[in-house]
Design a protein that fits this description.
The complex is a heterodimer of chains A (about 650) and B (about 160).
Chain A: H1 2-30, H2 33-62, H3 69-74, H4 81-87, H5 92-113, H6 120-144, H7 168-197, H8 202-233, H9 244-269, H10 273-295, H11 309-333, H12 348-378, E1 384-386, H13 388-405, H14 408-411, H15 419-423, H16 427-443, H17 449-476, H18 482-507, E2 509-515, E3 520-523, E4 526-537, E5 541-552, E6 555-560, E7 563-567, E8 573-576, E9 578-580, E10 585-594, E11 602-610, H19 612-630, H20 633-636, H21 640-647
Antiparallel strand pairs in A: 2-11, 3-4, 4-5, 5-6, 5-7, 7-8, 9-10, 10-11
Chain B: H1 3-32, E1 34-38, H2 40-45, E2 54-60, E3 66-67, E4 73-79, E5 84-90, E6 102-109, E7 115-121, H3 131-139, H4 151-156
Classes of the chains: A alpha+beta (about 650), B alpha+beta (about 160).
């Protein structure tokens, strides 16, 4: 019953989405108040049915309904309830349902929170455009990846959720990432609505800014969680692999970063509006591209579920339709987009323009490296893969100037400025960064190029943000607007991140060693001692557990118990890493494999990762900064003057 | 030309230049970091430069895995059904490394004809077979039955 209820909800959501994409849009076109007024109710209904469908699938998982194929494949009787819940979005079908739920949630949020701020015609258009996107995804789900398909009679027990996904990180990583991915559809909706109306003005950019910032913050958080998850779950101790699937989420992030900066210019100065529109389209299109790459099975990785060419073709067609249609609309309307004020060579506009150049070029670079093997393969020129050194080298090359320029941006004035005036308040920061970086690197014994550049760059960013903070504090004597607080936090976060990367990439201690019970290993002042390898049991697995004690000098500091798990279903083996996190370094022990020589010895991987937490800490500051900036009052205040200006075009003046 | 136009031209020129430079560097870096995928039959068919890195893919031959008792040195054979290549690797093998299962190794071929792997990748779950390996096996005439539970197959298997 529940499955059928979910199925019907999904179809009803589709019907509402179709209505939403047509009727109110026609109303906006004909200036028909009654038809436009339908939009918010349709959005609410759409959300309710999407939620119902999602809740149905979750209930099916919780209740072990193995007559549903999706449940039978991704769950079993031994799986604890929280992983059954996260299994709801652990499969391909379920993750699409999550995508739809997120999209309908964003739509509802726009309908509720922008109700008073946006003119009615504009809001209607935004919602209708998002409705169109929803149609695409609902059709995709219903036609090619129905989560509610049944098998009768159902098997007595299900298979298993991939053990890699049986982890707390997996409960939160996909929802956050999707919040970000799907959130760019709001910026996309605003851009398209602006183009449809034939007027791209500064006000739409202001309205879309908080949404873009929120989506970007969620995407940042999602990527960060993914990196953290890979670090402790895959058992290799890396934090970023330049895996095509990671890249698929990273490209929209880079474009999103460019977008939030170019929106700032367009809002404040009206400069490069056409570019902002184009970036909004690109950020969402690459989100779709990411979905295509991940879900079509073109790429093989942990994220690629059952491969099915039909699905790939559908998403590719949908992506081509969305991107093609929006670019065509852009081409038609571009001449009518306003032109902004000119600006001098030394100005904040130039600083932000440079940001945009570097971030879009980086996105292009990552895109090239990700798609190149696919193109080569498709043309029949052989099978290649592009190694991480390409991405690493290119990224460092492109981001070094960004790190050097970031602190200059906030200090520069709009329109026209002098280099001397911009740089002089930063001289102290510069000196502190260079000297401090050298001293710290020397003091902690990390006197190598990577660590030193990491420290200097990181301190430069943190100091630059701080000095901006104090200058603004003095200059305004009022509370700083949240937009500025968010920006400074985010920029300082980049600094924290840079320090983490510099240290991890240069000072990581990594060794694979042979350990027999009683053996010990001394590294970097720590002594790892293995006492025994014991058998332990979990709800749906058994494991060999290494019992390590770690000493610093003679003092015992911690015990670490890495496991090698064997899951009952599917007989899959998985490494469970033992971690001792710390602000300055992580201790990391992973079990390799038993060495069959009768001594009970194992191959063991021991890592000491300095400052690795700073990588995620910095990324967390970035996300937090984005959210704080999004909450700036300026975006949520009613724009009385503009509202009345739009009144003649059918917009209702809010009381 | 008006000063504004001059400025604009300068900005546009700067962008074009930097994008061009970045593209050049990107493509050069790409050429340097490309790893070609080869199967054991490819290795047999041609002599490959010893210094060049490759991705070698195939199945781990049954009964071929042997470990050095005193170190983490492992050696095994990779096969595509037609030919076999000996591989050595020092370190920890991935969780899903098994005899008779698909594997991809990064490394180069020494003058002794042994493939020295610097990295060994296996599958992420029990149903996954690297695309390249599946196709290499097919080419060598021994397609490997991969159990991919799509919803349709699961429906067909509903008898249990």
């Amino acid at each position: 019953m529940i499955a059928e209820f979910g199925q019907i909800s999904l179809i009803l959501a589709l019907i509402l989405a179709i209505l939403l994409a047509t009727v109110p849009l026609y109303g906006a076109y004909r200036n028909n108040e009654a038809l436009m007024r339908l939009a918010p109710s349709l959005v609410a209904g759409h959300f309710v049915f999407a939620l119902a469908a999602f809740a149905s699938l979750a209930t099916l998982f919780i209740r072990h309904d193995f007559t549903v194929v999706n449940v039978a494949i991704n769950s079993n009787l031994l799986l604890p309830w929280y992983y059954r819940l996260s299994a709801t979005w652990g499969s391909h079908e379920g993750s699409l349902l999550l995508w739809i739920l997120m999209l309908s949630g964003w739509m509802l949020a726009v309908a509720v929170f922008s109700r008073k701020v946006l003119p009615k015609v504009f809001l209607t258009r935004v919602l209708a455009v998002m409705g169109m996107i929803s149609i695409g995804f609902l059709l995709f789900t219903i036609l090619t990846s129905n989560p509610f398909d049944r098998i009768l009679p159902g098997p007595p027990d299900g298979q298993d959720l991939n053990p890699l996904l049986q982890d707390p990180g997996m409960i939160f990583h996909p929802p956050l990432l999707y919040m970000g991915y799907v959130g760019f559809s709001v910026a996309f909706g605003f851009a398209i609505a602006g183009l449809l109306g034939g007027r791209v003005e500064r006000d739409w950019v202001r309205w879309s800014r908080p949404w873009t910032l929120m989506a970007w913050a969620f995407l940042t958080g999602g990527i960060t969680l993914g990196s953290w998850w890979a670090y402790y779950e895959l058992g290799w101790g890396g934090w970023w692999f330049w895996d095509p699937v990671e890249n698929a989420s990273f490209i929209p992030w880079l474009l999103g970063t460019a977008l939030i900066h170019s929106q700032a210019v367009t809002e404040k100065r009206g400069a490069f509006p056409a570019w902002t529109v184009l970036l909004a389209i690109a950020a969402f299109s690459t989100s779709l591209l990411g979905t295509f790459l991940v879900r079509s099975g073109v790429l093989t990785s942990v994220h690629a579920f059952a491969t099915d060419p039909e699905r790939g073709v559908f998403i590719l067609a949908f992506m081509a339709l969305v991107t093609g249609a929006s670019l065509t609309l852009y081409a038609i309307r571009a001449p009518r987009i306003m032109t902004g004020k000119g600006f001098d060579f030394v100005s904040r506009e130039t600083a932000l323009l440079l940001n945009n150049v570097f971030f879009t070029v980086s996105a292009g670079m990552v895109l090239l490296g990700t798609l190149y093997p696919l193109i080569i393969d498709f043309m029949g020129w052989g099978q290649i893969s592009v190694g991480p050194p390409y991405f690493g080298a290119m990224f460092v090359l492109l981001m070094t100037p960004v790190v050097m320029l970031i602190p200059l941006g906030p200090f520069s004035r709009w329109g026209q400025d002098e280099l001397k005036r911009v740089v002089s308040p930063l001289l102290i920061s510069m000196v502190v960064a260079v000297i401090g970086g050298l001293v710290i690197a020397a003091a902690i014994g990390a006197f190598n190029l990577r660590a030193i550049t990491g420290w200097i760059g990181g301190l430069w960013l943190i100091m630059g943000s701080l000095s901006y903070f104090f200058r603004q504090k003095q200059a305004t004597r009022f509370r700083l607007p949240r937009g500025q607080v968010g920006m400074m936090l985010a920029h300082a976060g980049v600094g924290v991140f840079v320090i983490g990367v510099g240290m991890v990439e240069s000072m990581t201690y990594e060794r694979d060693v042979r350990f027999a019970p009683g053996d010990s290993l001394e590294v970097a002042g720590y002594r790892f001692q293995l006492h025994e390898v014991a058998q332990v049991k979990g709800p749906n697995w058994i494991a060999e557990e290494g019992r390590f004690t770690v000493y610093r000098g003679e003092r015992e500091i911690t015990s670490m118990n890495p496991q090698k798990r064997l899951y009952h279903r599917g007989q899959q083996v998985m490494t469970q890493v033992a971690l001792r996190p710390g602000v300055f370094h992580d201790l990391y022990v992973a079990m390799g494999e038993p060495l069959s020589d009768g001594t009970g010895a194992w191959s063991i991987r021991v890592h000491i990762k300095p400052f690795v937490r700073w990588i995620w800490g910095g990324a967390f500051l970035l996300a937090l900064g984005g959210l704080i900036a999004a909450s700036d009052r300026r975006y949520w205040r009613q724009q009385r003057a503009e509202a009345s200006e739009h009144a003649h075009s059918g917009g209702e003046v809010p009381a | 030309m008006t000063p504004t136009r001059k400025k604009r031209l300068a900005v546009v020129g700067l962008i074009v230049l930097s994008v061009g430079a970045a593209a050049t560097v990107a493509i050069t870096a790409l050429q340097d970091n490309m790893l070609f995928f080869i199967s054991p039959s490819d290795v047999h068919a041609q002599t490959l430069p010893a210094d060049r890195h490759f991705r070698l893919g195939g199945l781990v031959s049954e009964g071929s895995v042997s470990r050095d008792p005193h170190s983490l040195l492992v050696s095994f054979q990779v096969t595509d059904g037609a030919h076999e290549i000996p591989v050595t690797f020092t370190g920890i093998l991935p969780d899903l490394f098994r005899e008779g299962q698909g594997v991809i190794a990064h490394g180069n071929i020494g003058p002794d004809g042994v493939f020295h792997a610097r990295e060994v990748l296996a599958r992420h779950d029990e149903t996954y077979m690297p695309n390249e390996v599946a196709r290499a096996l097919e080419k060598a005439g021994t397609p490997h039955e991969v159990n991919m539970p799509t919803s349709r197959q699961a429906q067909n298997q509903s008898g249990y």
